[in-house]
Amino acid sequence: MAYLTIIKNGETIDHRKYGLKLLSFRKESLTHRTNYEEMDGRHGAIDTGTTFGERKLKATFLMQGVDHLDYQLMIDEVYALFACEDSIELIDSRQPGKVWTVKPSSTFEPDDLNSRSGKFEIEFTSPSPFASSYGSTLDPFTFGEEVWQIGQGLIPSDSLVYRHRTNRFSIFNAGNVEIDPCLEMPLNIVYKGASSNFTIKNKTTGQTVSYNGSSKSTDTIKLEGLRHLKNGISIYGNTNRRYISLKPGWNDIELTGTSGSFEISFDFFFFYK
């Protein structure tokens, strides 16, 4: 029987301990937000681009107490469970490798089936239209811990390498969404080693980040989304102020300005429509 894992304030919660049985969990399709521009003397309109809106998800639960008094106490506990000032995370046991970050967006009240049981539906809103992977690229790609699942676009694990010590390599984005730090998608690229005028280029997207400076063998250069750091201190002003994104599939990466032995790692989550 399917169930939801709820992560609230850092605590992992199994709703079945509250006497809740999951009857259904559904997500809506993507909401397309397409902008059109009209021009005088031209038929129709010009499509100027599409983005996706927030995502709605709905869960239906059956709740059953020992008796009518226990049922009333259970209702209060469930109301408290879904009273959220901060976002919570939902993981469907049927897809344990994907996480939805949501907040409840509807009121709910159980419809009594008898004196000790009832049924209710609750709606959640994800500000992002995408689910993220439960695991990051620096987690082991094994299926024993329910970190990964079938249907996540993964390829044989010996090809999924996210730590490299050469100047040319490829990074695989198993999701069907581009990893774009401008859209608050975490992407941490960490270079450990000596360098002079270090440059990293994603040849697949044509994006380049360059650092007009140097690093020693004990130094760390980190591209943390849109932030550029060396040993935890901002070097953004000494860079070309660009960023790296990752297209779905393979991304060919090239480094210049490296010196001696080094290691570079790519740590990020995959995203799914």
UniProtKB/TrEMBL annotation:
It comes from the Bacteria. Residues 14-125 form the Siphovirus-type tail component RIFT-related domain. Gene3D superfamilies: 2.40.30.200. InterPro entries: Siphovirus-type_tail_N. It holds the Pfam family Sipho_tail. This is Phage tail family protein. The lineage of its organism: Bacteria, Bacillati, Bacillota, Bacilli, Bacillales.
